[in-house]
Amino acid sequence: MRLLLLIIGFSLAVFGGVSLVAYLNLLTVGFSLQDYIQFLIQRVETYMFITGLLIIWIMEYLPLVKKKRKKNMKN
To answer: Mean pLDDT, to the nearest integer, of 8-20?
Structure first.
């Protein structure tokens, strides 16, 4: 389950990041930096990128939850 969530987070981050890099072309068209940032805030890809990074961070840095097994003790 943890590996699946890591792959999903990575996929979201890659898709969002590639889209954000592609949107950098708007700066060459004549958008100001402020217009560019306002445009990015309105795009779904920005939130996909942030969500993907957050999922990756959670999967990597949260400790694993281990179930305690009861050991049969012979006395």
So the answer is: 95
